Amino acid sequence: MRSARVAMVGAGWWAHTAHLPALAAHPSVSLVAVVDRDRARAEQGAASFGVERTETDLTALLQESAVDAVVVATPHTTHAALAEQTLSSGVSALVEKPMTTDADDAWRLVDLARKNGLVLSVGVPYLHAPTAHRVVAAVRTQIGELVSVAGEFSSGAGSLFAVTDDGDSAHDPTVPHGTTYSDPSLSGGGQGHTQLSHLVTTMVATTGLQAVEVSAFMSYRKLRVDLVDALAFRLENGALGTLGSTGTTPPGVPARQLLRYHGTAGMVEHDILRGTAVVHREGGDSTIIEPDPTRAVYQLQAPVDAFVRVLVEGCADPAPGAVGAASASLLDAAYRAATSGNREQVHQGALHMMPEELADAR
Q: Which residue, of 96, 126, 156, is where some domain finishes?
């Protein structure tokens, strides 16, 4: 395949901010349609990026075999149905994170893509950071057996979760709509699905390991969705992990996105936000991993660019759907654990992600 015919499904703020600009500018992409159930929003997206066709439903495009792939950037709870419809039609998909809000849905998508020989990717920009593959190599090969993981993701997302009416901006695709994040029928959850999902997906991609069980506490602070989360879990190799996340960081206070991996022969401290890491080895030796200063750590266009490379060139995928499924599974179980007050089992599938895949993808 020398080029790919791609449709944008969802024409809201994130599509306008990240995916539509990347698709429109990519030399190997023919952006053939913008699909959104809000016709006015679809038409505005199409007009802004020079696309001739708009649809309010994906079905017609898929029935015509008019596309090779779709990019799904719609509310979280709608991802599974749209991606399943796409993959069932023989079309590849890039799905925004969280890939789904239900573990069974996530692994069903992975199995469907593998069965049909299709590409299924999850949209997490940090998996494409310039130093991501070096952190993977350090965690998997330089610190011995992994025994624990600890992480923090703090942000100011709480202001979005508090919105109950988008007012005059409801149909404006150039600004984020709070109700997309604050209404659990659309978002699934709050801080967990919207923010902690970055940390969980990065951990899965870095370690190549899935969680098997989890306990969790979640605080809603009078909102309809969770605002503060605390998870404790066990990975499949026996390593223990803790992740904490809050959307309460006030304006002017630095956000933090950190993961620390302890092994039997060393430790890796990964600052995801800055794209840096320090590898500490037994005996006191350490190595600093720093990004290329000419490349942004958080690249909005990176998920689309990598997805197109996989489609057109057949290279390895640094953000495969199985990683998205393993992340979705841990979050699904965490929400259940927070509700039940019990330790919950995590649905596992075939992850199949080795260290060389990230290196090859670059």
A: 126
